[in-house]
Write a structure and sequence with these properties.
Length: 216
C-alpha cells in the first residue's frame, strides 16, 4: 500500500474537549502535509479553513448519543451551514439496546433531512453491542439514509474498533454504504487489519505515526 492510498481514506481526528484553536490549526496543517482525506473536529471549531484537497467532518450528538433527536438534527443543520462536508453522528445506544429500532432509524432520518448536502456517518459504538445489535444498528442506519456506518467514538470505556465488528458491519451493508473504523487505530498493522476486514475509511488521531511507518 502506498502513502497516498492510505492517507486518502483517513479522517485525521482531534476530538479532545480541551483542544484549542491552535491545536486545530496544527491538525489542519498536519492533514495538509499528510494529504489525509479530511479532518474530523468538534462542531465548536467550525467554520474551518482548510486546503482544497482536505474535507471537513464534524461530530454530532457526541460522544454519548443521548441527546434528543431534535437536538441532533439542529446540531447537524448548524454543522452543515458552517461548511462541513461530513457529519459523524452517534446513535441513541439505549434505544438500540432496548429494542426500539424504529426510534434509532427515525433519529438518523431526521438528521439526514436536516443536512441533506453532507456525507452522513452513523456511529454505532460497536464495542458495546452484541452481534445482532450491530446488525440492527447497521440496518437502521441504511434505512435512515446514512452513507456510512462507523464503529466507535473512541471515548467509550468498552473500547474502539475491532476487526470482527468491521467484518460484520461490511457483511451487513455490503457495498451500499461505507464502513468507517475508528477508535484505537494507532499502528500501520491496525490500519491494515481494519482495511482487510472491510473498512473504507479510517478515523485516526495517530495518522502521522501510522503513515511514517508506511514510509520507512
Amino acid at each position: 500500500m502506498r502513502h497516498d492510498e492510505l492517507s486518502s481514506i483517513i479522517d485525521h481526528t482531534l476530538l479532545a474537549p480541551e483542544a484549542t484553536t491552535a491545536d486545530i490549526t496544527a491538525l489542519v496543517a498536519e492533514a495538509a502535509r499528510l494529504r489525509t482525506y479530511s479532518v474530523c473536529v468538534s462542531p465548536s471549531h467550525l467554520p474551518l479553513s482548510v486546503p482544497d484537497h482536505v474535507k471537513v467532518a464534524a461530530v454530532c450528538g457526541f460522544p454519548s448519543g443521548t441527546h434528543t433527536a431534535t437536538v441532533k438534527a439542529t446540531e447537524a443543520r448548524a454543522i452543515a451551514a458552517a461548511g462541513a462536508d461530513e457529519i459523524d453522528m452517534v446513535i441513541n445506544l439505549g434505544a438500540l439496546r432496548g429494542g426500539d429500532i424504529d426510534a434509532v432509524r427515525d433519529e438518523i432520518a431526521l438528521v439526514r433531512q436536516a443536512a441533506t448536502n453532507v456525507v452522513l456517518k452513523v456511529i454505532i459504538e460497536s464495542a458495546v453491542l452484541s452481534d445482532p445489535e450491530i446488525v440492527s444498528a447497521c440496518r437502521a442506519a441504511e434505512d435512515g439514509g446514512a452513507d456510512f456506518v462507523k464503529t466507535s467514538t473512541g471515548f467509550h470505556p468498552a473500547g474502539g474498533a475491532s476487526t470482527h465488528a468491521v467484518e460484520l458491519m461490511r457483511k451487513t451493508v455490503g457495498d451500499r454504504l461505507g464502513v468507517k473504523a475508528s477508535g484505537g487505530i494507532r499502528t500501520l498493522a491496525d490500519a491494515r487489519a481494519m482495511i482487510e476486514a472491510g473498512a473504507s475509511r479510517l478515523g485516526c488521531s495517530a495518522s502521522a505515526q501510522i503513515l511514517a511507518e508506511l514510509d520507512c
